Amino acid sequence: MHNLGAITPLGRTQSHVDQFDGLRICEVTSRALASLSARLGAEKACGDKATKFTGLTLPSVGKSEVGDAFSAFWMGPEQWMIDADYDQHTLLAAELKSAMGDTASVVEQTDAWCRFDLEGPRCADVFERLCNVDARGMTTDDVTRTRLEHLGCFVWCLEAANKFAVIGPRSSAKSIHHALVTAARSAI
Amino acid sequence: MTQRNRLSGGQIVRNTPLNFTFDGKSYTGFQGDTLASALMANDVQLLGRSFKYHRPRGLLTAGSEEPNALVELRTGGRQEPNTRATVAELFDGLTANSQNRFPSLKYDFMAINDRFSNFLSAGFYYKTFMWPAAFWEKIYEPIIRKAAGLGSISFEDDPDAYDKGFLHCDLLIIGAGPAGLSAALTAGRAGASVILSEEDFVLGGRLNGESHAIDNMAGTDWVVQAQAELAALPNVRIMPRTTIVGAYDHGIYGAVERVSDHIAMPDAGKPRQIFWRIYSKQALLCAGAIERPIAFENNDRPGVMMAGAVRSFVNRWAATPAQDVAVFTNNDDGHRTVADLQAKGVNVAAVIDVRPDAPRVDGAELFAGAQVVDSAGRLGLKSITIRLQNGETRKISCGALAVSGGWNPNAHMTCHQRGKPVWDETIAAFVPGGDLPAGLTVAGAAMGQFSTDAALSGGANAAVSALAALNIDAKVGERSTAEDAPTNLTPFWYVKEGKGRAWIDQQNDVTVKDVKLAHQENFVSVEHLKRYTTLGMATDQGKTSNMGGLAVMAEMTGKSIPETGTTIFRPPYTPVAMGTIAGRSVGMEFHPTRETPSHKWASEQGAVFVEVGNWLRAQWFPKAGETHWRQSVDREVLATRKSVGVCDVTTLGKIDVQGRDAAVFLNHIYANAFGKLPVGKVRYGLMLREDGIAYDDGTAARLAEDHFVVTTTTANAVLVYRNMEFARQCLWPDLDVQLISTTEAWAQYAVAGPNARKLLQKVVDADYDLSNEGFPFMACGEITVCGGLRARLFRISFSGELAYEIAVPTRYGDALVRRLMEAGEEFDVVPYGTEALGVMRIEKGHAAGNELNGTTSAVNLGMGRMVSKKKDCIGNTLSERAGLNEGDALNLVGFKPVSDADPVTAGALLMNATGVVSAEADQGYITSAAYSPILNSSIGIGFLKNGFERKGEVIRAVNPMAGTEIKLEVVSAHFVDPEGERLRA
Question: What is the ipTM of this complex?
């Protein structure tokens, strides 16, 4: 076991939480991410192997699949992000690559992103001041890519109207967090 | 002060008095007042001075169409000029001031302009300031600029925040008058997602200003009932204080919500305003209509108002403009003013109706077939002169005149995409028609449905139709009913009698005469008329004046009004503050920032940061006693070259390239070949644009047969990734290649200097051989550090030293830099910033952004042979253009001052040692320069004609702008270790 300590995207040792009336914004650091891209001509095999490994059917455009151990959301044509618990699957990319073989390209993405989960009935009030996502119209498992605080982010609806994940570039975590909190203060 | 003109009733909260000042004088109004209604209640009639002639002006209207009553609100950073008093909600402590006057509103020196009105007519500027031409820039323009404008600003920063937001709905209803409310009820009951926007702070539209009944209840009570029902529907969003300012493509509407304009300052964290982008599937315009004036001589005197506005003030705000009010109308609607004034106990001095068959009036003298031909009163109306049907004139004392020339449907929004309204003869007005913005329909008075009943039914029916297009089944059901009287209008635009000025556009001081002059001078097109006279410009965009101007022009040309046409309406519908458009993107929040993994640690070290795009990079790390940045940078360079330094290079773009055809793909992307690069090796690569010019460089590391990691420069990380993605998807879709950015995923540090290996050996796990044989120059590999953490190691060097770049997952970047510093103590390790990085790369002669500047080719850079001719790549063919391969091409070389003390300056032009300094004699330019603490001299690199052949020659670096000139010796660009022995050590 290595002896280096990790810091969160916000530069702390513990996840940061902001509480508002009807909204909780939580910095999430417990997820491992790996991108999965089907090799040309191996799309079907990629889907089959991914299902075998994750237990999920790789989702279609704008959707996610959430399972017990793994989740997946669509990122682009024949490209998905696979999500799992970090402690359980610290080496998610290596595990996935091993399962996929030559049917897919897999890249570790865990620390490329920061994630903030928004939970509570006021989520949509905050999103409408942040990005062009119709959070009220999203159903559970919808995922979309949007521009938030000038940054390309994923907005993932984990529970319709009540829980969303914002996944954005890690280096700008403070800017994203600032935007989320500012919008929350503005709306709530 | 007593509110002399306050009446009974109204929608004001009398137990909530509000104190405010206007031009320094204190007044009291009530909750529910606007600044305009409160001033009216306090008998303040003179509110401003006109733009050009500085004529006294008062209220013309009661709404956002107001051309005259422009005031400055608040003070300090919140001072806001040119705000219409009619839409400024009163709050306790409001400070308001008149504008465009000196020294006071009553006595304005600039009113002298009015005496010279014959000289200041339409086209004055164009005719007067033509000669002498030399006067324009230095004399005329400054004078005109000084005279132009109305209000002033404080030049202090606005302390408030402005939000931007996005809304989505099935149906956007613009305007919450009877039509809008009826539509909202219909759509809301059908379950559609509805946004009901209203620019006023109360719903109801004209119902607030009228005494109409709906369903046997007061119109205002019906509004309360409708609002309560709508508020209870979760699918309906009611947005008061929200003006739709523009109709854009695909059902998108711009809206400004004035969240905190009605309070002294926003609550903590709350915005002053929000600029919404509303994405609607369907939209329904229920914006009502705007009453139009009748122009007559001196019709701009304070006290001359629109009749509907008078009803609004009387009914809604319980304020009368005067105790004696006359009415001048060409339609039955004007007569409603008579009844409403009388109901409130205000004396109606006379009713002047241009129609000989005007309906009977009770309780006031009616002059049928008569016209108002003049008015009197220095700062406010005292009397009017009327011409009776029999030709006699009569003077009538009155403090206000309510004028109605009919109503113009508020069609602006339907024209924002160049739609043209159509003429409706029955109401003598333009109504929405032709090509409306997709998904937009119109109902109520905005469609020419002028009775309340027609508005109610029009709104409901339009909602049903709009929702049918979305397959939402809505029903009108049992709708409310109300009065349904026609207005019986006889078109009448202006009084022809009189030699004085009859005002059409009061905001721009445009008169009937001006329009006639425009015609006389052949500016007959409506667009020319607008530009020549300024008719319809400025904050009100001609809401009360455009039609009058068109009517006069139509008469002049002998054409009909529809033949004369209308000018284009453009967004915004009402003025939008620049702060609202900027939103939160101001000051330090102008753009997001990116922090490197070592940012926290670097901050603790007191690093000085520099913005590189959005990145904040440590520029240097000052130490105690260092008073100048050069001391820090020199120390960092010397320490690195002497022992070891560490620099955060995470910002360089990292693109993961995988697939069976990854190597083939990189052969296409890079000018040089990558197909035979062994696994475990890194190669420098140069990318060309399609036109053969170099645009980025970096390295590609081969981690497996089908796996590369491409690095790019920091500045071009996104561009290169985008271009590669384009190439993958569009140029070579048949290649098996997958790309994804991993820039953020890895914290990457350069460890450079003779002791770099020794330092790394303390961090990299012992399983890995870092010896020169085990891990030679340009090697790469996946390793572990600090007891098992996955990491990547690249033996590459930008500094020219024995150097590595080591990468770990970003979350461990902070810990790794601390560990490197701790482990490096025995080697006197230093962190170095971008300045030292720059110095060392110049000393080594490495090209960077200054050299890859969009004009230079591989040949210029001395890399001509890298453009492999054994394969094709982007830019390969065009790099062979003759112009890029001439004999005396610019070559990248180094420069050393002949006299060590002379500074080499980037940007300096190169000239031969002797001869004239001219563009023709140009020999090239210096791209990068730095002080080299190793050479104890300033050095530079740059492009010199045929430079490779001129080493040893003395040339001059000149700056003709600054008059400087120094002598330089042309040398190799590789000042340090030209043989590369250090980096291979």
Answer: 0.98
Residue in A111, A133, A138, A149 to test binding to B, most B beta-carbons within 10 Å: A111
Query: What is d(CA B174, CA B532) in angstroms, rounded to the nearest whole number?
Result: 33
Q: What is the pLDDT of residues B795-808, one digit of tens each?
A: 999 999 999 999 99
* CA-wise closest residue to A66 among A54, A77, A76, A48: A54
Q: Is B13-115 a CATH 2.20.70.100 domain?
A: no
**What is the bridge-based pairing of β-strands A64-66 and A70-76?**
antiparallel
**Does residue B718 sit at the A interface (CB-CB below 8 Å)?**
no
Asked, colleague to colleague, whether B13-115 and B653-741 share their fold, the answer is no
Mean of the pLDDT values across residues B493-508?
93
Q: A141 — phi, psi (to 5°)?
A: 85, 0
Give the number of beta-carbon pairs within 8 Å between A and B: 150
Name the average pLDDT for chain B: 95
Give the full edge-to-edge strand order of the sheet including B608-612: B594-595, B615-620, B608-612
Buried b or exposed e, range B126-160, using 16+ CB within 10 angstroms: eeebeeeeeeeeeebeeeeeeeeebbeeeeeebeb
Question: Do A133 and A105 belong to one domain?
Answer: no
| Cβ–Cβ gap B744/A171 under 8 Å | yes
For the stretch B620-644, pLDDT in tens is 999 999 999 999 999 999 999 999 9
Which of B483, B473, B455, B485 shows the shortest CA–CA distance to B180? B455
Residue B2: pLDDT band with limits 50, 70, 90: confident
Residues of A in contact with B585 (CB under 8 A): 150
Question: From CA B87, how far away is CA B64, in angstroms rounded?
Answer: 6
Q: Which residue has the tokens 């914006």?
A: B287
- Detail the DSSP E strand segments found in A64-112: 64-66, 70-76, 79-85, 104-108
B290-405+488-564 CATH fold: FAD/NAD(P)-binding domain (3.50.50)
Measured between alpha carbons, how far is A15 from A5 in angstroms, rounded to an integer? 14
**Res. B313 pLDDT band, cuts 50 70 90:** very high
pTM for the complete prediction? 0.94
- Architecture of B162-289+409-468 per CATH? 3-Layer(bba) Sandwich (3.50)
First to last CA, chain B: 92
- Helices B307-315 and B332-343, axial angle in degrees (round to 10): 30
Which amino acid, residue B381?
Answer: L
How far apart, in Å, do the first and last CA atoms of chain A sit?
44
The C-alpha angle B303, B308, B309, rounded to 5 degrees, equals 50
